[in-house]
Every structure is written in C-alpha cells, then in structure tokens.
Specification:
The chain is mainly beta. The chain is built from one helix and 22 strands. Strands 5, 6, 7, 8 and 9 form a five-stranded mixed β-sheet that branches. A five-stranded mixed β-sheet has the order 14-16-18-21-22, with no helix packed on it.
Length: 297
C-alpha cells in the first residue's frame, strides 16, 4: 500500500533547507535505494559547477554570449571597460587606441553622450593605417555651432551637396558663405576675394612660384636691377590664371621678369616684364604655354 504525504509548498527556500533524495546508484546490479539529504546551497553549487547545466568561461571586460548549444557561456565581440563600451573591432564607441579595420554604421545612430566631458570620440583609422568608414543612412556630425570637422585628406562627393538652407543648388551656382552658414548662389551674387601671396623682389634675385594663391603682390627692396620670377609649368594645372601686381616701390629702373619655365613660353617669348609703379598683368595657361590675357598700359 502506498503512503502519500502532503506538505506545504515553499516558493523561497533557504540555503539551509534540505531536500530528501533516493540514492539510485547501481552496485552489483542492484540499486541501493538509500534515502539521503541534500542542502539547497549544495544543489545551487552543483548546478553552477562544471558538471552542471551552465558552463563556460570568458575574458575580462568582455560581455558573455551563449554558445550554440545553449548550455555554455563564451566571449562575445562586445567589450566594456571603465571608459568605453563597444564592438571590437567593427564599431568602437568612446576612445579606441587599437588598430581600425572597417567601421559600418547601419540605419540608426551611435551616441557617445556621457562617456566623457567631450561627449566621447569616434576613431577608426590611426596614423599609417588604411581602412574604410561606411555610413549608411543619415549622419550628423556635431550638435553645436562651435563643433568642427577637420578633414586632412581628399574629399570626394558623388552626390548632391546640400547648403545650410537645405538646397542642393542648381547648375552653375557656387557655394558662398553668409557668415553664419553656406548657401548656393548665382556667380553674379558671389563676392570674389583674391588672397595674395606677398613676394619681396631684389635686384639680381630670382624665385620660382609654387604657391596656390592666384595673385602675387610684389614689393621691391634694394637698388635698381632685374628680378626673375619663374612661373609654374603651364602643363601642371591647365587653364590656371595668375595675376601679378606691384606697388609704388617698383620704378622704371626696377624690372620684374615673369618668366616661363624651361622651354615653355609666355606670349611666345621667354618672359614678360613689369617695370613701373602700380603695374600688373594676368597670365593664363592653355595647358602648353602661358598667355598674357590682361596688362596695364
């Protein structure tokens, strides 16, 4: 006859509570069927041990992830420290000093707020390394007028360039600053400013122009004589225009020769001469030689 016992149900057992178990070990083909007790604390230790249902290990500061069998824990690609949290090496949020490979930002955003006083930083490619940064979806760089984007390399724009008003502009327009933002405007509405390169000319001296400015302002120092100023090659930047002006320090006895380099010519000759106060000329490259397109009488 079976005896049935009924006991009150416990939902929050103590570690010192004891379970009653039956030992089913086989000895010489027979089960012992001995009654034994098991403390709840010992049961918890057994479940979490290497012989229990949850096993595995991991690396310091690496967030764990279940392995495919669903019973073991291992390293994920997510890392965390006292200063940063991120996905290594694809996406890094916060300051990252390791080598960058490829950073892919999907639709959505990464916020670094609260990581540091400077709102964190995003680093992918360090000095001497190459890599690709791909941003899919919308991206906003900076949230204040004082935020600055510095680009130390070539920029290629394959699509529309939107101005501060949200306009992509129309064919032939130029991008102009309003002092607060930028706007696409018609060329007739844009103010042209020529930033000069200042060159000191001396009698018997010479120099080669290698600057990117498109206007050169001459000053003369010393006695009378001739100063040679050699143009860049007309083939280097075809269709480039360079203006030359001078102040009152240059007189009729002071000669500045704007000289074509090598075997190239300027107006068919070796040089064009400036030799009076407040003089000037403009030269244009046709891709082969230099041509004087404007000169003061």
């Amino acid at each position: 006859m079976a005896i049935i016992y009924s006991y009150p149900k416990v939902t929050s057992p103590l570690a010192t509570d004891v379970l009653v178990l039956t030992d089913t070990t086989l000895t010489a083909g027979k089960r012992k069927n001995k009654t034994k007790s098991l403390a709840m604390s010992d049961l918890a230790a057994y479940v979490a041990s290497s012989t229990g249902g949850i096993t595995g290990g991991g690396t310091l500061n690496t967030i764990p992830l279940w392995t495919p069998d669903g019973f073991k824990l291992g390293d994920s690609i997510m890392v965390q420290s006292t200063t940063q949290v991120g996905v290594n090496p694809t996406i890094q949020v916060g300051t990252y000093s390791g080598p960058g490979q490829q950073t892919v930002l999907g639709a959505g955003f990464i916020s670094t707020s609260g990581i540091g006083a400077d709102q964190g930083s995003f680093t992918n490619i360090t000095s001497g390394q190459t890599g690709v940064v791909t941003i899919r979806g919308n991206a906003i760089i900076g949230d204040q007028v004082t935020d600055t984007l510095i680009v130390n390399s070539t920029v290629t724009i394959n699509n529309q360039l939107i101005d501060g008003t949200g306009s992509p502009g129309t064919a032939g327009q130029v991008l102009s600053s309003t002092g607060i933002q930028t706007e696409w405007v018609d060329p007739s509405a844009a103010i042209t400013k020529l930033i000069p390169y200042f060159q000191l000319a001396t009698p018997g001296g010479s120099a080669t122009y290698t600057q990117s400015n498109n206007i050169v302002d001459f000053d003369w120092s010393g006695g009378s004589g001739t100063y040679e100023y050699i143009l860049p090659s007309a083939t280097a930047i075809p269709y480039r225009t360079i203006r030359f002006v001078n102040n009152s320090t240059i007189t009729a006895s002071d000669k500045i020769r704007i000289t074509a380099p090598g075997t190239e010519t300027i107006d068919g000759g070796a040089f064009y001469e400036i030799n009076k106060p407040y003089n000037g000329c403009a030269v244009w490259s046709d891709g082969v030689q230099w041509i004087v397109i404007q000169a003061k009488a």
